[in-house]
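Quick one:
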Amino acid sequence: MIASVSGTVLTARLDHVVVEVGGVGMLVHTTPATASGLRVGQQARLSTSLVVREDSLTLYGFGDDDERALFEQVQTVSGVGPKVALAILSVHAPDVARAAISGGDIVALTKVPGIGKKGAERIVLELRDKVGALPGAATSAGVAPTAGGTQPQVVEALVGLGWSAKQAEDAVGRVLKAGEAPGTTSEMLRAALRELGR
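Output:
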């Protein structure tokens, strides 16, 4: 189990980063909020979870241990894999996700790509008594994007989560037309995901 990685950020995209560890570039899948807080050339430390499959070893990274713990916990639910677990953390901050699960907020959970009504009910049923918002738990905050750099990144992330390019572009367009003007890339992604969940 690789519990964390520390090193120089070589690449930072919306849904993954590459961190150089001992001369080896490790690709780490992250939430947009975590990725947006990292800059190429800077030192970074990410809490990580290694998902082992027959044909792959995939590393997922988080801003703190609390986020990683929730990522691993939701995967104990039947039918919830790492992609859906990461999507939960992309749409909701850890405390918000915990509150939705413990409060049985099916509507909030079905806003996550890959979770339907039955899946949300199963998550609530299996985890309601096991999760709880941790007092003072840190949440990741994004950094304001450069002008014009947000929209393509958000479309790319939505396509990576399973939507078509057209669906992704339409959702981003609706967010911009609604005048929500999210301040960060991760906020825009969350707003677009809310649009797609309607």
